[in-house]
Write a structure and sequence with these properties.
The complex is a heterodimer of chains A (260) and B (153). By secondary structure, chain A is of the alpha+beta class. Chain A contains eleven helices and 14 strands. In chain B, helix 2 packs across helix 5. Classes of the chains: A alpha+beta (260), B alpha+beta (153).
């Protein structure tokens, strides 16, 4: 690791102040991506600003129509306490137990790894991202590979999920890392169907042809014939772009079958 | 440097460590607690698993500074010769180790797993030890040991 200065912020305001005044600052949430990245010298920062001491960023709260997950809520907390079954299932399948004891929802979506699970939850369940300054809709949040609409010193304070009438997340995990080779979240909320795909492309995206077909008839057969354009998909030693496109169809159909 | 005060195996320590010191390094090199092993150092193998405020974590992926004010428990803190932890007894009883390198991490992960589970079957143990590798591939006996230990914890 290159050297850096470590700071533990006591409040969101202090964290932002530290970040703003640093030439090259990085917020530290659970550290499950940032610390390995620093260790491999893939990142070189002046200041690491730990958000772990900020109590207001923790916890999972449910009201009648929505569920709010604090930005620093760890995956195992969501896996235990989420009132949306599909979200509980998704969180319980991230990484391994030790990673789930540290990794956070805010860190995951701010990083926007193309193979991460949470972006599919946020986009597929049409969540609202709360930051220290504004709210961002899921459709506007994920802007590209490892890229989001977050500003330089902006912090994800919470993610608010509307309660779906039905939702399911199915992924084909990489057997070593448990990252999604392909993962698909299908949901229906107040008659609106969403299908969000992670792992396949450079950034999580909605499969609009599937959404239309499922709006007409919510059944696995409705989407079985839909072909997915793989021209911009990821291709690596784990799966070719064509195979990932095939998996999108299979995972989506399995998700639909589970809730129809 | 950053000043860190934390409890390790019930004993309070105040140290001055590098800002980028890892918990695994501090435990081994500053506190001489070498039972916490470093296998991959890339948060994959689980050999460095310790408990941070009661939760199993990979010490190679936690900054020591992050542990300030916390309680850390390592393999050295759960039992001693003559009065082993039930999980250590079970690993011994069921021959759940071969070379022994992964064992401290396996035991710490397994204790975390049992503490957080109502009751486990073989599949539950395998899934719960997803983050720990045994390169001797002695998994069958590890699963047997954890299933046995949960009766005595």
């Amino acid at each position: 690791m290159y050297s850096f200065r470590y700071h533990r912020a006591a409040s969101i305001e202090e964290a932002k102040e530290l970040h703003t005044t640093s030439d090259e600052g990085a917020y530290l949430a659970g550290g499950m991506t940032l610390i390995p990245t620093l260790k491999q010298r893939l990142a070189d920062v002046d200041d690491v600003i730990d958000l772990g001491g900020i109590e207001s960023l923790k916890g999972v709260m449910t009201s009648g129509t929505s569920m709010k997950v604090g930005g620093m809520a760890v995956h195992n907390e969501v896996a235990a306490n989420a009132t949306i079954d599909a979200l509980r299932h998704l969180a319980s399948g991230i990484g391994d137990p030790q990673v789930r004891n540290r990794g956070t929802i805010g860190g995951s979506i701010a990083n926007n790894d193309p193979a991460a699970d949470y972006p599919a939850a946020v986009l597929g369940l049409n969540a609202t991202i709360h930051t220290n300054g504004r709210t961002i809709g899921a459709d506007d949040f994920f802007t590209g590979m490892f890229d989001t609409a977050l500003g330089d010193s902006e912090i994800v304070t919470a993610v608010e999920f509307p309660m779906p009438s039905r939702a399911a997340y199915i992924k084909f995990p990489n057997p070593a890392s448990r990252y999604a080779v392909v993962g698909v979240m299908v949901s229906e909320t107040n008659g609106n169907v969403r299908v969000a795909v992670t792992g396949a492309g450079t950034c999580v995206f909605r499969a609009s042809a599937m959404e239309e077909a499922l709006t007409n008839e919510f059944a696995a057969e409705s989407i079985s014939g839909i072909s997915i354009d793989s021209s911009s998909f990821n291709s690596d030693i784990h799966a070719s772009a064509e195979y990932r496109a095939h998996l999108v169809g299979v995972m989506a159909q399995r998700a639909v079958s589970q809730i129809s | 440097m950053v000043d860190v005060t934390f409890s390790v195996n019930g004993k309070e320590h105040s140290l001055s460590v590098n800002d980028n010191a890892l918990l695994s390094e501090t435990l081994r090199e500053s506190l001489n607690l070498t039972g916490t092993h470093i296998g991959c150092d890339t948060s994959q193998c689980g050999s460095c698993t310790v408990h941070l405020d009661g939760k199993a974590v990979k010490a190679c992926t936690v900054l020591t500074a992050q542990a300030a004010g916390s309680e850390v428990t390592t393999i050295e803190g759960i039992g001693e010769p003559g009065s082993l932890h039930p999980m250590q007894e079970a690993f011994n009883e069921h021959h759940a180790l071969q070379c022994g390198f992964c064992t401290p991490g396996m035991i710490m992960a397994a204790i975390g797993l049992v503490n957080e589970s109502e009751s486990l079957d073989g599949d539950g143990v395998r899934k719960g030890l997803d983050g720990n590798f045994c390169r001797c591939t002695g998994y069958h006996n590890i699963v047997k040991a954890v299933l046995s230990a949960q009766q005595n914890m």
